[in-house]
């Protein structure tokens, strides 16, 4: 069952986004071919929203999967909603378009549907990419309320961000941020909606596993569903767009079976009560990623001096002036 029109929501620029997407991040230990396989399976199952990023280092494989499913007639390009992200090393305005063009080259696509800033930085250059027709919609990721207000209150703002992609799951339900985004016609997109892949050192290995929570388990049993399906359905009923990542065929299929049942108000209240403001992903890893890029270059990597220079800038404190 492919996503129907009723499984999309309209963004503030008039474009629509599927409410359920496949996340394509994987640890370096996972072969890139698995990302390609997972993307193909997801499209066959009915996923039409594919969430990727330059940081994930698998854009070529994901793009190959998308093009293969277009070539065999499973979907058309218009059916697919692809999200890409601008990584920290390309946030200087003059680097934004080249970074987007590199993503398009990796994917071998003419445009992407949504391009978002991976972390709070420059937004003006993103507007120019939209004007150039390289991307249909632009948004942000990992922005708090204050950072969103800086963009929304910016004189001469041409395009309001259509979305804010953040970590969101039953242990971190982001209720205040969700309320603010709704009041400003910005869609909140949940990543790590099932908890997280728990990859060290990104995540504290002693943190609780959300899908093992007994409350989720009891609700899942009542509806004859999995805890993951309940966690996804919870976010959909709250009005979020949800990213569910898995490279396992069985789980990809299960994660899509969330449109034929409804959580009760009592279920929703019980899951709301699980909130611990527990953030699995702490963004100190952005510095780690930057350091790794520099180390790779020292070991013979092919990164440009310009990218490395920006990396060094990122290791210094970020000025809020760069946000706009």
Automatic annotation (TrEMBL):
Residue ranges annotated for the NADP-dependent oxidoreductase domain, each copy included: 20-275
Q: Which domain of life is it from?
A: Eukaryota
Record-linked PROSITE patterns: ALDOKETO_REDUCTASE_1 (PS00798), ALDOKETO_REDUCTASE_2 (PS00062), ALDOKETO_REDUCTASE_3 (PS00063)
Active site positions: 56 (proton donor)
> Where is the site described as Lowers pKa of active site Tyr found in this chain?
85
- What InterPro entries has UniProt attached to this entry? AKR, AKR1C, Aldo/ket_reductase_CS, NAD(P)_OxRdtase_dom_sf, NADP_OxRdtase_dom
Ordered alphabetically, the record's keywords are: NADP, Oxidoreductase
A molecular function annotated in GO for this UniProt entry is: oxidoreductase activity, acting on the CH-OH group of donors, NAD or NADP as acceptor
| Coiled coil ranges | none
Q: Which Pfam families match?
A: Aldo_ket_red
The positions annotated for binding substrate are: 118
Name the CDD domains on file.
AKR_AKR1C1-35 (cd19108)
Q: Which PANTHER family match?
A: ALDO/KETO REDUCTASE (PTHR11732)
Q: Which family does it belong to?
A: Belongs to the aldo/keto reductase family.
What name does the UniProt record give this protein?
Answer: Prostaglandin-E(2) 9-reductase-like isoform X6
Q: Which organism is it from?
A: Phascolarctos cinereus
Classification from the root reads: Eukaryota, Metazoa, Chordata, Craniata, Vertebrata
């Amino acid at each position: 069952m492919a996503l129907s029109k009723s499984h999309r929501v309209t963004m503030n620029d008039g474009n629509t986004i599927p409410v359920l997407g496949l996340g394509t991040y994987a640890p370096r230990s996972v072969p890139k071919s698995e990302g390609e396989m997972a993307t193909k399976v997801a499209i066959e199952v009915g996923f039409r929203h594919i969430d990727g990023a330059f940081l994930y280092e698998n854009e070529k494989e994901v793009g190959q999967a998308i093009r293969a499913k277009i070539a065999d007639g499973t979907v058309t390009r218009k059916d697919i909603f692809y999200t890409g992200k601008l990584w920290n090393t390309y946030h200087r305005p003059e680097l934004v378009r080249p970074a987007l063009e590199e993503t398009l080259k990796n994917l071998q696509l003419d445009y992407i549907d949504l391009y978002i800033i991976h972390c709070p930085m420059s937004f003006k250059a993103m507007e120019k990419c939209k004007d150039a027709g390289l991307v249909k919609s632009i948004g942000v990721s990992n922005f708090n309320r204050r950072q969103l207000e800086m963009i929304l209150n910016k004189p001469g703002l041409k395009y309001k961000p259509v979305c804010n992609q953040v970590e969101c799951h039953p242990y971190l339900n982001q209720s205040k941020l969700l309320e603010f985004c709704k009041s400003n016609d910005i869609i909140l997109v949940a990543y790590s909606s099932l908890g997280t892949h728990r990859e060290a050192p990104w995540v504290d290995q002693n943190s609780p596993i959300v899908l093992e929570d007994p409350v989720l388990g009891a609700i899942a049993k009542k509806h004859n569903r999995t805890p993951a399906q309940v966690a996804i359905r919870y976010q959909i009923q709250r009005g979020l767009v949800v990213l569910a990542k898995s490279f396992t065929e069985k789980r990809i299929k299960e994660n899509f079976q969330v449109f034929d049942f409804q959580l009760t108000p009592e279920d929703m209240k019980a899951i709301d009560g699980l909130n611990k403001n527990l953030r699995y992903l702490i963004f100190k890893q952005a510095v780690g990623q930057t350091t790794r890029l520099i180390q790779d270059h020292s070991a013979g990597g092919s990164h440009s001096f310009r990218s490395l220079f920006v990396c060094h800038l990122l290791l210094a404190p970020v000025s809020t002036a760069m946000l706009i």
